[in-house]
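Q: I'm writing up a methods section and want to include an example of the input and output format. Could you take the sequence below and give the corresponding predicted structure tokens, formatted cleanly so I can copy it straight into the document?
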Amino acid sequence: MRKLFLCATCLLLCLGTLASQDCKKTELSADQKKYFDDALQKFAACPLPLDSSCRAALAQALDHVYGVNFGSLTPGEITKRVAGDANWSHLGSASDQSALKSAQDNANCGKAVVAVLASDTGGHVAIILPGSLSHSGSWKLDVPNSASFFTQNPSKSFAGKSLAYSFPKADGVELYARK
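A: Here is the clean output for your methods example:
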């Protein structure tokens, strides 16, 4: 009986250790970096107003990097989709430090994570990338690493900067992770 108890205890400790291990993916793979470099260069060359292929650049990036198929949805349509889709969990508001940390942790575990701002003009969506939190003086919070495709100014789009570069303030920005 004592050996059985000891074995059960060891098994529980091992399982607990495995379950509590942090994911440590702190950067994109070489293929993912190349994809973002190429996609951002192509997107920056899009003339305004954007045609449908340029408006779908964000959806294409989510599909290529995370296997999340949004077809040719625009950022505004993606915002609506993740908010109402049971396959996405709401992590919280970007004004909440624990939600920002959770977003970065999920991205570091290889999950698709987005920050969305809904608006009457369509809104904006940023992709949370693997990396580390960095302090934002304007937000006064530690914010995750991100990529952003700006539909109003494609040349300002980027990958590998803090989320504060995607949105001027945290108010109204919501965070979602793919389950």
